[in-house]
Amino acid sequence: MTLRPDLGLVAGLIPSGSRVLDLGCGSGELLAELIAEHGCRGTGVEIDPPLVLAAISAGVPVIELDLDSELADFADHSYDVVVLSRTVQTLHRPVEVLKHMERIGRRLIVSVPNFGYWRHRLRLLRGRMPMSREIPHAWYDTPNLRHTTLVELEELFARLGLVIEQRIVLHPTGRPLPSDRLANITGGSAVYVLRAG
Amino acid sequence: MQAKPGTGSVGLVSTRSVRLFTGEEPLHLERGGTLGPVDVAYETYGTLSPAADNAVFICHALTGDAHAAGFHEGATRPGWWDNLIGPGKPLDTDRFFVVCANLIGGCQGSTGPSSTNPATGAAYGLDFPVLMMRDLVEVHRALLRHLGIGRLLAALGGSLGGMQVLQWALDHPEEVANAVVIAASSRLTAQNIAFSAVARRAIMADPHFVDGAYTAAGVNPDTGLSIARMMAHITYLSEDALTEKFGRQPHPDAHEPGFGIDFAVESYLDHQGQAFLERFDALSYLYLTRVMDYFDPFADPEALARVGDRAVKWLVLSFATDWRFGTDHSRRIVRTLERAGQPVTFREIPSTWGHDSFLLAVEPYHATLRAYLDRALKEVRR
Question: Choosing among B331, B338, B370, B380, which should be mutated to test the A contact, i.e. which has the most A CBs within 10 A?
Fold first, then answer.
């Protein structure tokens, strides 16, 4: 099984044997890999019915619920790692979700597309909404409700008391950039490892 | 819409009976005391694999029976879960070996309160012991031993059936690889118990109940039992389902306003109540509703410690319009299992039909069971 490159990167950040909660787990790719190859246990959360079925077919425990309103069901400090992979931009209440993640897990892994990527900026300068491999949807047909740049996301992390332990900035192809400099311009997306401060 | 034998059907089937406990080797009951002999009526569909790794046990609900699929000789209607069980269906009998048994305390072939008490030669009546969920499970387990099955691929049930599955997997995790708990509850609410109490009162207040000795008296508490069924039936359907089915449609025979059967919904309930009399026993209704009232497996603080990491996987399903055991009931089960570190999958299935949805071929519901069971079989054979 080959994981989507960004998920492979996330998998590499999770210690073997961890209990993992994957919020917005999609078809369960990441958890299936972690359970089968890394001795992890875990639960996925997904709201899109076809993806829930796909996760069930992949043998991943998946709970169908709404991230924006139903995370209170999970107990404090009940997971080693809570993952929010390319999902924060689709949430109605991202601050509440991040607070729940902080409450539920010891480590948080959050990956986001970067609205500040230079090609997005160029599109805006030309008077058009950003579209790219990272943000492939037209404005009228996108699951993304909230766009953020890495700079502003990091401001929010700081405000919530989340400490950035690690940041990996990715080229739109999914390959990590060799340098972290000018991440907010050169990065198509980023993966953060966070812990409660 | 009805399937004919042969098309996705397990075809002609018959109910078998086996004596699992005797007077000498009786069933030891959870509350103390014994019961024996214990006969159990059951059916099986499909073929048990040589490794005995494809067995799925169906636990039926309050008024179900062993006849879950296929057709009895001369019957025009199939078993009660025929839309789920058969070749090519989610419980594909070309691959799964399916077992369904009538509950003890019931009245469709298994030992119950209207069976003969060997001590008196008459029906047990109210001398039949009060049963608990664990007693029902112990008898299922004895049937599995009889059939040579050590570990189930899945135990699966809706409503009271799901409650048996929950108890079984909590107490004997090594016997249940997958526990499928549908439209069930881990603890009835006051409202649930209230409905049961009114149903039981209707039965016991019927002059033909005769303190449970109605068989000897040559009568039957028809009025009480049919009222119990009518009321229960209201709780099985959502308000929207009743509106969609009947609205305020008048009954065709209603002419003058009065107190007869003037609305279609009244005729429907009356029919449900009357039809029930032909297949169900009033004492069984008392005993089996009581099993549900007392059920509270998570009250035992050790319940989940016993399961530990012993590889039970859980699927919990609820239906959006179920107000008997609605999504809150299922979410409590999910929350409790998940917090104990159990691998649990949960879906709330959209359906307008209320509690009864678990018996219907609701597409996303059957798709979920199919995906889950296919995966379960794959995992056990990996």
Answer: B338
Q: Is B171 a catalytic residue?
A: no
Least Cα separation, residue A16 to chain B (angstroms): 17
Which residue type, as a one-letter code, is found at position B102?
N
φ, ψ (nearest 5 deg) of residue B245: -70, -45
B72–chain A nearest CA distance, Å: 34
Domain hosting residue A22, numbered range: 5-196
Q: Is B146 a known active-site residue?
A: no
Q: What is the CATH number of the domain that holds B253?
A: 1.10.1740.110
- Out of B322, B329, B330, B351, pick the active-site residue: B322
**What pTM did the predictor assign?**
0.95
Q: Tokens 């597409």 — which residue?
A: B363
- Chains A, B: CB contacts within 8 A come to 48
Tell me whether A75 touches chain B (CB under 8 Å).
Answer: yes
Q: Given an 8 Å threshold on Cβ–Cβ distance, is B313 in contact with A74? A: no
From A186's Cα to the closest Cα of chain B, the distance in A is 40
ipTM above 0.95, yes or no: no
φ/ψ of A113, rounded to 5, equals -75, 145
CATH for A110: 3.40.50.150
B159 carries an active-site annotation = yes
Block residue for tokens 């070309």: B94
* Phi, psi dihedral angles at A9 (to 5 degrees): -65, -45
C-alpha–C-alpha distance, residues B48 and B241, integer Å: 39
| Overall domain count for chain B | 2
Nearest C-alpha in A relative to B374: A57
Helix (H, G, I), strand (E, B) or coil at A18: coil
Q: Is residue B225 part of a domain?
A: yes
Nearest to B368 among A56, A59, A74 (CB): A56
List the pLDDT tens digit at each of the 382 positions of chain B.
Answer: 444 454 699 999 999 999 999 999 999 999 999 999 999 999 999 999 999 999 999 999 999 999 999 999 999 999 999 999 999 999 999 999 999 999 999 999 999 999 999 999 999 999 999 999 999 999 999 999 999 999 999 999 999 999 999 999 999 999 999 999 999 999 999 999 999 999 999 999 999 999 999 999 999 999 999 999 999 999 999 999 999 999 999 988 877 888 989 999 999 999 999 999 999 999 999 999 999 999 999 999 899 999 988 689 999 999 999 999 999 999 999 999 999 999 999 999 999 999 999 999 999 999 999 999 999 999 998 8
DSSP B221-275: -HHHHHHHHHHHHHHHS-HHHHHHHTTTPBPTT--SSSSSS-BHHHHHHHHHHHH
Of B289, B319, B344, which one is at a domain's C-terminal end? B289
A56 to B372: CB separation less than 8 angstroms, yes or no: yes
B22 lies in the same domain as B153: yes
Q: Which domain CATH number covers B127?
A: 3.40.50.1820
Q: How far is A79 from chain B (nearest CA, A)?
A: 9
Flag if B375 and A41 touch (Cβ within 8 Å). no
Rounded Cα distance between B153 and B150, Å, is 10
A12 CB within 8 Å of a chain B CB: no
